[in-house]
Design a protein that fits this description.
Blueprint lengths: L3 H8 L5 E4 L2 H14 L4 E4 L5 H5 L4 E6 L10 H14 E12 L1 H7 L7 E5 L2 E11 L5 E11 L5 E9 L4 H10 L2 E7 L14 E8 L5
């Protein structure tokens, strides 16, 4: 994204780096870091290419937030990404992943997420997020963005992307297969324990305890 998680870590004294598949987002992140006065290395790289980009076993921790892993549309892609995460980490390094709780989403067919809004001066944005459950088992995730300036009419755009619902049991098994242990699951970044029937998120904390074979 725009780099603020990595920038916040750097402001707290960590040596931080960040990656995004979009070169435009990387340029924005670099600008944000420069304006914040902290050194953060940002590189355009996607899932499966992090260790090749940043080097192997160079990190104590790796964060994958914002429901990013469900963009991987097959078990093989997920496995490759998690192995790549492990290659980035030193032995004992920590991985933190934050996804939606898709066990709950599928069980209750939860189509709509809470709307979000943003305002800068007399400019205003509204973001409506909803999903379509597709016949092939994947989800089409939609963001409808509404923007207006002052009293002008609303302008709208829609962005859609495909997601593969990543369920709790698959996540746990894939992490173990990739070389992670001491896996703990939480219902949010606030730290409450994960309940597949009620938690809004699945937040996983795992340690690299062996090299993948």
């Amino acid at each position: 994204g725009t780099g603020w998680h990595a920038i916040a870590l750097a402001q707290r004294g960590c040596q931080a780096a960040g990656a995004d598949l979009s070169p435009a987002m990387i340029e924005r992140a670099r600008l944000n870091a420069a304006q914040s006065g902290v050194p953060v290395r940002f590189e355009a790289a996607g899932f499966g290419a992090l260790s090749a980009t940043f080097g192997a076993q160079g990190f104590d921790a790796l964060l994958c937030l914002g429901n990013s892993l469900p963009h991987l549309l097959s078990p093989a892609e997920l496995g490759d990404a998690l192995v790549d995460f492990a290659h980035c980490l030193q032995l004992g390094g920590v991985l933190i992943v934050q996804n939606r709780n898709f066990d709950l989403v599928l069980a209750k067919r939860l189509r709509w997420m809470e709307p979000q809004s943003h305002r800068e001066g007399d400019a205003e944005w509204l973001f409506l997020r909803f999903c379509d459950f597709d016949p092939d088992g994947l989800i089409t995730f939609n963001i409808l963005s509404l923007q207006r300036q002052g009293s002008q009419s609303w302008q709208q755009t829609r962005h859609s992307t495909r997601l593969r619902p990543l369920l709790f049991d698959e996540m746990m098994g894939a992490l173990s297969e990739a070389g992670f242990g001491e896996i703990e699951a939480y219902g949010s970044l606030g730290g409450e324990m994960f309940d597949p029937a009620t938690s809004g998120n699945l937040v996983v904390v795992a340690k690299k305890d062996r090299e993948h074979r």
